[in-house]
Each structure stands twice: as C-alpha cells, then as structure tokens.
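Suppose you are handed only these lines of text.
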Amino acid sequence: MPTVISLINLKGGVGKTTLTVAMAEFMAAEHGLRVLVVDLDPQTNATVSLIHEQEWRRRNMRGQTVLNVFLDHLSKYRIFSPQEAIIRKVSNIQGGIEGLDLLPSSIDLIEVHDEFLRASAALPVNPLHILGGALRESLPDYDIVLIDCPPDLGLICQNGLMISNYYIIPTIPDILSTYGIPQIVNRIERLKSETGIPIQPLGLVISKFREQSNTHKAQTPLLRLNAHRDGYQRVLETVIPEGTRAAAVMDSTLNFTSLHDKYGYDNPYRHYQSLTEEVLSYVRK
Ligand SMILES: Nc1ncnc2c1ncn2[C@@H]1O[C@H](COP(=O)(O)OP(=O)(O)O)[C@@H](O)[C@H]1O
Ligand SMILES: [Mg+2]
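From them, the structure of the protein bound to adenosine-5'-diphosphate can be written out as follows.
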C-alpha cells in the first residue's frame, strides 16, 4: 500500500498547492515513484496546474471528479467509477510525467460539503470513509499519494486525513500563517483518538521565506524550537524561499521539457529536490 501524505493549512496562500505539485513531480520524475495527487480543495488549483483547464471543464461536466465520489453516496443509484476519474500521466512537463496521476477536484465541492453534512446521518456508510472506500482498488497502484486538502477541517478534509499516514503543514513563517497550527494539530489528534487512524505529523515546511524579513528570520527558529511542544514533530530542514519562478510555472498551458526547464537549476529546483528527498527519508523508515 502507498504512503499517503496530506498537505494541510487553514490559511490559504501559504504555498500548499505549489508544494504538493512540485513534490509529486519530483517524486515521479526523479525517484521513479508511482504518485497519485488527490485534489480535495474546491479551488482546484492543483488540478488546473496539472491538466489544462479545458480538460478539467470537460471532466467536471461529465462528473469525473472527486465531487462525484461524494455525490454518488447521496443518490440511490451508484453509477460513479472512481477509477475512471483518475487521469494518468499529468503535469505540464513533457505533456505529462509517467507515473504521475491525478484525481481532480471540482468547484462544486463547496456546496456538496453542506449537503453532505445534512444527509450524512442517514447514510448507510460512515461518511468519514467515503474517499477511502472509493480509492480502495486504486491505492495499491501507487507508492505515494499526496492530498491537497481544503483550507478547513470539514468532512471532505477529514476523509483525506482518514486515509493518511502523515500530514505536512506548509507555512509562511509569520504570525498570521502560523496562528492556526495548534488548532490543526489538536483537531487531527482528536480525529486520531476517535477513529484509531495511524496518521502522524511529518512536520512543518517553511515556505515563501524572505531573507529580508525580520519576522521570517525570528519566527523560523522559534517554530523549530516549539516543534515537540506544539505537536507537529519537526520543521523540515529545507526552507522554500519566496521567488518569482515558483509562482510563474503553475500554469498548465505552459509546456516544459524537464524539471530543470520548469524549475531552473537553482531556485526553486534545488529546494524542491531537497524537500522531496527529506520527506522521502522520513516516510521510508
Ligand atoms: N516559493 C514561492 N515563492 C513565491 N510565490 C509562491 C511560492 N510558492 C507559491 N507561490 C505563489 O503564492 C500563491 C499561493 O500559493 P499556493 O501554492 O496556491 O498556496 P495555497 O495552496 O496554500 O493557497 C500562488 O500565486 C503561488 O504561485
Ligand atoms: Mg491551494
């Protein structure tokens, strides 16, 4: 079975999706791993940076997204096949990276979330196990699954946590971005004790770090110091600096010939490369 890692933060704009996509590409292209990205965020950013927006619209119209994993349980007739919704060989590098697959998201996940909460008491299945149930047959095909979680701790997000071995909290090292971290750790600990799932914190990833910022320079060592006390295990050694290239390459209409073509030779290439190696070193133990 694969190692499943959720990337989570209640704050948007911290680089969560960018890190999910980059790590997935590095794991597949440099390590030859079979990787599935599960996009649970209704903002669909991971989805539209890994496939063309037109392709996503087509699939969204046909109901081939993660939305239908959930919708299927609200209708009497089970017609959805999660296997068919998984898109093979995605990324804007070489028209797709062998071994990198995507379960795309849908904007309508926002609405289904509320509808689902209302209906969930009457459902024949435990509403926390819907994603896991839908992916049961697909999971053995992968070495790693990366889940881009929505910026909340609602039912859809919890479905992702239920199948995760680890979670990573990407954060900008400033006061606002780190504010919700104890809440995430505590909520996941509670879910863990209520359900017996094996999820563990893999650590915090410092992202969009600014060398010139006194706040960033002051907060980073503090976050490292408080890792055990605050229950997120560690801050990963690799720090992702803020840079224009990281932001520019997420557009799936662009075409790149290689990881270097997309991410350069220095920043952010070597940072994503070292972060990926670091993450793999923890999950392979
Ligand atoms: N290292 C970085 N340096 C500069 N901009 C970045 C970096 N990582 C992400 N961004 C940009 O910041 C914005 C938020 O990033 P994103 O990955 O979408 O965050 P989240 O998923 O946490 O909302 C996007 O416009 C993205 O392109
Ligand atoms: Mg995002």
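What can we learn from it? Residues 16-17, 41, 43, 45 surround magnesium ion (ligand 2) (CB under 6 Å). The longest helix spans residues 16-31.
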